[in-house]
Specification:
By secondary structure, the chain is mainly alpha-helical. The protein has one domain. The protein has 7 helices and 2 strands, in the order ββααααααα. A hairpin with a 2-residue loop joins β1 and β2. The chain is elongated, with a radius of gyration of 20 Å. It starts with 10 loop residues before the first strand and ends with a helix.
Length: 152
């Protein structure tokens, strides 16, 4: 097995307020953890939704609750994942995933608290840097724009 103990991802130091923070480039493992968190959240929401749908279907009487559940039990698409990455909560969680390597005691809440909208471009570049010819992960907005261009 390959020893990765000395492996250090690309790091970028950014001054936020009066303190310097070190953001590490996100790995596929980090993005997998992000997706796993979304799956967990969706599962919790779906469980509540399932209970309500079954109860509502029983009240109405002529609706098969299992048919309704097919619509609520779906996996997270890549588009949904990318859209979630652009939300305030998503950006905060990704910042946590990036900062935790150099700032081991940081919490998700603290990571979200230090992020400033004025630094989003710099922070995004630190978490998912562009490497020469390699492009940044496409955002849902970029995909929609690209799709519009292709359609014209």
């Amino acid at each position: 097995m390959l020893d990765l103990s000395g492996f250090v991802p690309k790091r970028t130091k950014i001054v936020i307020g009066t303190k310097e923070f070190t953001f590490s480039e996100l790995s596929m493992g980090d993005l997998g953890e992000f997706r796993g968190e979304l799956v967990k959240q969706r599962k919790e929401v779906n469980e509540e939704r399932r209970k309500r749908l079954i109860a509502d279907a029983e009240k109405i009487g002529n609706i098969d609750p299992m048919e309704l559940l097919k619509f609520s039990d779906s996996s997270i698409s890549d588009e949904e994942l990318e859209a979630q990455m652009e939300t305030i909560e998503g950006i905060g969680f990704m910042a946590y995933l990036s900062l935790r390597y150099a700032h081991t005691g940081i919490s998700r809440e603290q990571a979200a608290q230090i992020i400033r909208p004025s630094l989003m471009g710099e922070i995004s570049e630190a978490m998912v840097p562009e490497d020469g010819d390699k492009k940044k992960l496409p955002t849902a907005k970029a995909k929609a724009k690209k799709s519009k261009v292709k359609q014209q």
